């Protein structure tokens, strides 16, 4: 009859303990961060003076008293242009590491395929924006 050895049974337990230990460090750091923010907000609430006056309740805008309504129309197309810029800025951020890895032995074909897939997704997004007329400045 074969008896199980202790090394066979403890190896998976040891691997799982190491795996969850790294997550416990991240969790502890998140809890400490949340406590730090909670203490800072609580101290601010306890230490600040609360003296409401009509002047403090007015809307303040760059040192000038507000005139007119409280809301204004904004063109959505400006946000679309900003969004498209962010997409292509992220594209350029991914191209630089790809260019450095591409020359490494053993990574050439894999990184080439991955980059063309990534550029394909960006091309589909650009084609969609072009078809919708987003790229036309009016």
Protein described:
This protein is an all-alpha fold and 138 residues long. It has 3 helices and no strands. The longest helix is centred in the N-terminal third of the chain and has 42 residues. The chain is flat and about 70 Å long. The model has no long low-confidence stretch (mean pLDDT 78).
Can you summarize this structure?
With 138 residues, the protein is mainly α. The chain is 67% helix and 0% strand.
- Segments where pLDDT lies below 50 for 5+ residues? none
Query: What composes the largest sheet?
Result: none
The count of strands amounts to 0
Can you give the helix content as a percent range? 55-70%
Rg (CA only): 28 Å
| SSE string | HHH
Distance between the termini: 84 Å
User: If helices are DSSP runs of H or I spanning 4 or more residues, what is the number of helices?
Assistant: 3
* Global structural class: mainly alpha
Query: Strand percentage, roughly?
Result: under 5%
Average pLDDT for all residues = 78
The outline comes out as flat
